[in-house]
């Protein structure tokens, strides 16, 4: 492995991983936030219709 290329590859992998983790975290937080904000009456209606 070239001594000059290894740090570049590591930095690219690190930036890629951080980007993926950040996007996943944002999506998860958005889903949880939407669930909390949604009105309980709507959830009750959905459960009644499903039954």
Query: How many discrete structural domains?
Result: 1
The total count of helices amounts to 2
Helices and strands, in order, run as HH
Largest sheet, strands/sense/barrel? none
Describe this structure in words.
- With 51 residues, the protein is an all-alpha fold.
- It has one domain (5-50).
- Helices cover 86% and strands 0% of the residues.
- It is built from 2 helices and no strands.
- The longest helix has 33 residues, at 5-37.
- The termini are far apart.
Quick description:
The chain has helices at residues 5-37, 40-50.
Core attributes:
membrane; rod-shaped; 86% helix; single chain; 51 residues; mainly alpha; transmembrane helix; transmembrane
Topology:
Layout: H1 5-37, H2 40-50
């Amino acid at each position: 492995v070239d001594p000059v290329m290894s740090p570049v590859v590591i930095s690219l992998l690190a930036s890629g991983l951080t980007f993926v983790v950040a996007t996943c975290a944002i999506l998860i937080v958005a889903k949880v936030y939407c669930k909390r904000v949604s009105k309980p009456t709507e959830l009750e209606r959905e459960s009644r219709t499903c039954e």
